[in-house]
Amino acid sequence: MKAVILNDSGGTEIFSLREIPVPRPKSKEVLVQVHAIGINPVDVKTRKGGALYNSLKEQKPIILGWDISGIVQSVGNEVKGFKAGDAVFGMVNFPGHGKAYAEYVAAPEDHLAMKPGTISHGEAAAASLAALTAWQVLVQEINIQPGQHLLMHAAAGGVGHYAVQIARHLGARITGTASASNASFLKELGVNDHIDYTQQDFEEEVQDIEVVFDPISGETTKKSLEVLKPGGILISIVGGVKDDHHAIIEEKKALAKNYLVHSSGADMAQIAALLMDGIVKTHISHQFSFEQFAEAHQQIETGKTRGKIIVNVF
User: Fold this and answer.
1) What DSSP letter does each residue of 297-313 carry, written as one string?
2) Overall pTM surpassing 0.90 (yes/no)
3) How far, in Å, CA of 206 to CA of 122, rounded?
4) pLDDT, position 314
């Protein structure tokens, strides 16, 4: 099979396309013929030597990627929930060695869900890490309630555009930050109030926010804590909550923490139901071929991607 190998950390020129053996599924794994792959910022950070690179660098060959959608080819002898021919999707082995940049992936059964028949493999692959992050943060970490006011940063991005739709479904009021070019997109997603971060300082536009979803970090985290109401909640998915924020967190009596998504087939099944019913939809802004992983990474690095990008395999 073809696979994209990461030979070292660095720029996109270090990728190499190779033929390697098709993996054999273990007893609780399924072998998936991959039809589409989702690309995420963590892929880029890991390729550059950050994020998960140190935990993967001794596991040769390093094959990046975690988000897949495809068709089950065979199953391990203890697999109960899937059979050959099933269309499945999910985020595989995160945080760990997903090995998704390949034509075939051996994935744990409990990291996958059945792909809804109403969406494409591309839409399903895209709705893995990003949608799973949004679900786990909003439902499991925050337990967001109807009427709560959510400040969603980068609301037009990969995680953001799923989070807005999920929060809208759960009855939250949503203020989203994004550039002016994304204003109509945010309205379609369900954002109540848009803040153009290129022209407006969000901390001057909102106060007493109950919930902040932070995929940016840095000054954005600090300013978000300042607009949080007493007893409010801030969750950062990029390590934005630092020790030097302790004083304001104590003053606000806030719940502020960092969160890292984890693979879960059960959670993917919840997302699958939302996708099936059209409650959540994937927006794909760019598509690439299997030979264009470098270009896909370069697009993510612009920091301007609306929704998601995917790589088509079959």
Assistant:
1) HHHHHTT---SEEEEE-
2) yes
3) 36
4) 85
